[in-house]
């Protein structure tokens, strides 16, 4: 028995000993690009939620976005048309498009994709994005008609979802397509080793033109430090790194890409302290946003004053925040002997929760605490798990974050609409303002661009006056990109990015210098 | 011997059953919502209705005993169930990953056994000598280092600094297949780190045990008969010392499995380590139960093997289950 074990051990040792250098070392000038991210998707099925905002490399939506995030036709020949009542959207499909398996794209595939998302039996995470969609039907082989429950102007923005080939009778939750997807996109999947890498090969018959490189390898490295170390070893052409680890080194350039991803303090309207307008305005005035960008974000961010990013055409100019001490003095919050203000026996103190696993939100919470202290407001930061946070959101302040660059309606409608007060993560602080509600409603129903712009202007002004949130910073995603890569065109990124929607959104046009 | 194995198997069944029930009870005590974990960042834009539909699809809101019986029933049909955290059949998750974890643990165990036997015996031979003192100091030092720290340090020195080995992954990022030499090259650092972090126990044990047996009568008698030093050391002293060592291997195996989780995470190896962490965070009972069952089965099998090896090494030992 012992001898047997010994033999096995020797055999195993022999396996480790025979190491040879890899065939193609890092830095070799092949025309396959290697990118790395922490964001490994759970599956690659657009129906379940993969790449809902487009740029998914493997799939195409009816529409796509260009480098300014403006919509352009993709699988649709032109931008889909909207009927006068705003409730019927018609898309004509491009002809001659084939899936990676050679099958031709038809209207049935589009109908199948959208119907699958709406099916309650399917574990789709983007079903609530299509709340407005009543039904989708094919009209002939190349026309798709979407019928909406109510007029919804930004609907075209939801048509970036990747189109699957029709898979009759398949359980979408267990479908093979989750791991080995078939799309129409610039790359087809060669292999996916979960936890390691996704290997993509160029789709030579891509309707948008053959990719300028032969393939892409997406390496998944979850740990920030390890990813940065492997980047330094020269393994990747482009890699997302944590801001504090993003220092340029030989042959690489740092890109700090603006995002619509904001962080802020949600202040519940019910609390005796956070419910007081003067306190909310004072915290808003007391926070040093520039110091947070420099100190907490290592420069990879921008000050935030509202939920619409400064890069958006709907953004209002930064409001004046005033002086914290003056605001509190005028409202009758007087300074006590211990440096904390009080009014009618109520101390100016509240708890600020943050998810303990998120070090960025923790540092922001501590920075807010320190800034508020100077204004005489005592904040107790408390790091918790989401499960502990959830039941307390209606009473205690919370560091929250979200944001999308695509349409001002997307997140804000639910986050600040009174209809969603107390519903999960939507409007946990129960903010309610008739002006805000009216502006948000106008913004989603009006088809006149000038009217929409005016509505979101009113919305931002009202938020600045009511301060249901103290917006702190917009994040920037930081990437290291090898200097010999040509064609990198960063665009404003949403919160969700990884394989899709990262700096390599247009990698099918990248080349080597 | 067949009887022993049979009796052990009969004993293993209730252990495995109890382990799986414990897993589900632990999961029930966890406040985590698997649907929220599955949704990831999308949870902040999802309606409660959408989340509830997903939970209903999985049946995770059913009473615990219903979930457990369903799981057990599926298991009897050879179906390990549905992993909510990976959104895939549990069997597929494990099939894709268990091999790599077993390879890592297997090689490491081999390296640790051989290394600690050789070094420990040599250290014991010249007790208080330079090698002995060096080995002991190193063992105590390593024992106090967290293995993820050791792993990051190894990456900094051997991957970044010297460039001898890759910093992570299973194969070269550019390679398209799985090549034995490539995998071996990638496993050198993880195996070394895991082996070094697990070796002190074994090494110190072998050293003490051999040192003790060097003073026993049969060893002294062998020396007195004028046998060569090497023959006495490896043929007589080490042989006596080996017996308790076998037990140590059996009982230490779970620790090796635990260490592999950390090492797999740092070296981004696609083994069971990362998925276990993910499954635990997302209350994914079926996947956790399957992983726990496999680990328990491996540990039980290892114990049985060491006991059998014991009887082979020392005919005086009889085991009766």
From TrEMBL, chain A:
<dbReference type="GO" id="GO:1904680">
    <property type="term" value="F:peptide transmembrane transporter activity"/>
</dbReference>
<protein>
    <submittedName>
        <fullName>4-phytase</fullName>
    </submittedName>
</protein>
<dbReference type="InterPro" id="IPR030678">
    <property type="entry name" value="Peptide/Ni-bd"/>
</dbReference>
<dbReference type="InterPro" id="IPR039424">
    <property type="entry name" value="SBP_5"/>
</dbReference>
<keyword id="KW-0732">Signal</keyword>
<dbReference type="InterPro" id="IPR000914">
    <property type="entry name" value="SBP_5_dom"/>
</dbReference>
<dbReference type="GO" id="GO:0015833">
    <property type="term" value="P:peptide transport"/>
</dbReference>
<comment type="similarity">
    <text>Belongs to the bacterial solute-binding protein 5 family.</text>
</comment>
<dbReference type="Pfam" id="PF00496">
    <property type="entry name" value="SBP_bac_5"/>
</dbReference>
<dbReference type="GO" id="GO:0043190">
    <property type="term" value="C:ATP-binding cassette (ABC) transporter complex"/>
</dbReference>
<feature type="domain" description="Solute-binding protein family 5">
    <location>
        <begin position="71"/>
        <end position="417"/>
    </location>
</feature>
<dbReference type="GO" id="GO:0042597">
    <property type="term" value="C:periplasmic space"/>
</dbReference>
<keyword id="KW-0813">Transport</keyword>
<feature type="signal peptide">
    <location>
        <begin position="1"/>
        <end position="22"/>
    </location>
</feature>
């Amino acid at each position: 028995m012992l001898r047997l074990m010994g033999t096995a051990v020797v055999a195993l040792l022999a396996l480790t000993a025979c190491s040879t250098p890899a065939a193609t070392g890092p830095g070799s000038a092949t025309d396959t690009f290697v990118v790395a991210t922490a964001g490994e998707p759970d599956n690659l099925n657009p129906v379940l939620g993969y790449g809902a905002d487009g740029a998914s490399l493997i799939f195409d939506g009816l529409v796509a976005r260009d480098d300014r995030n403006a919509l352009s036709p993709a699988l649709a020949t032109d931008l889909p048309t909207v009927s006068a009542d705003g409730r019927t959207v018609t898309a004509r499909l491009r002809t001659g498009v084939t899936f990676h398996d050679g099958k031709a794209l038809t209207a049935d595939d589009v109908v199948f994709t959208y119907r699958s998302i709406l099916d309650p039996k399917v574990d789709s995470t983007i079903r609530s994005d299509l709340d407005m969609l009543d039904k989708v039907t094919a009209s002939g082989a190349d026309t798709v008609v979407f019928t909406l429950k109510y007029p919804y102007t930004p609907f075209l923005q939801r048509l970036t979802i990747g189109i699957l080939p029709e898979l009759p009778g398949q359980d979408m939750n267990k479908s093979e397509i989750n791991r080995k997807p078939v799309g129409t996109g610039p790359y087809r999947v060669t292999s996916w080793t979960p936890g390691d890498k996704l290997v993509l090969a160029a789709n030579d018959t891509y309707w948008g033109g053959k990719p300028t490189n032969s393939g892409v390898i997406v390496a998944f490295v979850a740990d920030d430090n390890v990813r940065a170390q492997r980047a330094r070893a020269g393994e990747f052409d482009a890699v997302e790194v944590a801001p504090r680890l993003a220092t340029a080194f030989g042959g690489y350039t740092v890109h700090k890409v603006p995002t619509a991803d904001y962080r802020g303090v949600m202040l519940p309207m019910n609390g005796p302290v956070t419910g007081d307008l003067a306190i909310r305005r004072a915290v808003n005035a007391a926070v040093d946003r520039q110091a947070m960008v420099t100190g907490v974000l290592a420069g990879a961010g921008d000050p935030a004053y509202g939920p619409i990013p400064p890069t958006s055409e709907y953004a209002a100019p930064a409001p004046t925040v005033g002086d914290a001490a003056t605001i509190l003095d005028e409202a009758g919050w007087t300074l006590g002997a211990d440096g904390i203000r009080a009014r009618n026996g109520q101390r100016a103190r509240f708890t600020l929760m943050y998810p303990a696993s998120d070090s960025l939100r923790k540092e922001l919470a501590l920075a807010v605490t320190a800034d508020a202290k100077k204004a005489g407001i005592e904040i107790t930061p408390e790091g918790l798990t989401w499960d502990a946070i959830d039941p307390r959101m209606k009473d205690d302040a919370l560091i929250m974050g979200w944001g999308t660059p695509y349409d001002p309606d997307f997140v804000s409608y639910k986050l600040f609409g009174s209809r969603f007060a107390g519903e999960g993560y939507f409007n946990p602080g129960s903010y309610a303002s008739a002006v805000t509600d009216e502006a948000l409603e106008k913004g989603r129903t009006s088809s006149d661009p000038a009217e929409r712009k005016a509505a979101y202007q009113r919305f931002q002004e009202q938020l600045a006056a009511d301060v249901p949130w103290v917006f702190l910073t917009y994040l920037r995603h930081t990437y290291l990109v090898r200097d010999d890569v040509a064609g990198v065109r960063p665009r404003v990124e949403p919160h969700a990015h990884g394989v899709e929607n990262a700096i390599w959104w247009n990698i099918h046009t990248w080349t080597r210098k | 011997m067949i009887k022993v194995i049979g009796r052990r198997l009969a004993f293993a069944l209730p252990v495995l059953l109890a382990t799986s029930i414990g897993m589900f009870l632990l999961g029930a005590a966890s406040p985590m919502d698997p649907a929220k974990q599955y949704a990831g960042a999308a949870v902040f834009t999802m309606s409660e209705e959408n989340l509830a539909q997903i939970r209903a699809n999985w049946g995770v809101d059913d009473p615990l005993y219903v979930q457990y019986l369903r799981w057990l029933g599926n298991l009897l049909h050879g179906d390990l169930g549905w992993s909510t955290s990976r959104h895939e059949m549990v069997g597929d998750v494990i099939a894709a990953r268990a091999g790599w974890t077993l390879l890592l643990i297997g090689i490491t165990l081999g390296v640790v056994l051989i290394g600690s036997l050789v070094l420990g015996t040599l250290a014991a031979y010249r007790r208080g000598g330079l090698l002995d003192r060096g080995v002991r100091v190193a063992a105590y030092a390593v024992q106090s280092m967290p293995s993820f720290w050791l792993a990051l340090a190894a990456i900094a020195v051997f991957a970044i600094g010297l460039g001898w080995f890759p910093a992570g992954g299973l194969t070269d990022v550019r390679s398209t297949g799985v090549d034995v030499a490539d995998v071996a090259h990638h496993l050198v650092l993880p195996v070394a780190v895991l082996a070094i972090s697990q070796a002190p126990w074994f090494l110190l044990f072998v050293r003490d045990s051999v040192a003790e047996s060097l003073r026993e009568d049969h060893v002294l008698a062998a020396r007195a008969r004028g046998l060569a030093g090497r023959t006495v050391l490896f043929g007589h002293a080490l042989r006596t010392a080996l017996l308790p060592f076998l037990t140590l291997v059996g009982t230490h195996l779970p620790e090796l499995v635990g260490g592999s989780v950390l090492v797999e995470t740092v070296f981004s190896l696609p083994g069971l380590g990362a998925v276990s962490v993910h499954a635990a965070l997302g209350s994914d009972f079926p996947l956790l139960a399957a992983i726990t069952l496999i680990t328990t089965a491996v540990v039980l099998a290892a114990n049985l093997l060491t006991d059998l090896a014991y009887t082979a090494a020392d005919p005086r030992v009889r085991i009766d289950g």
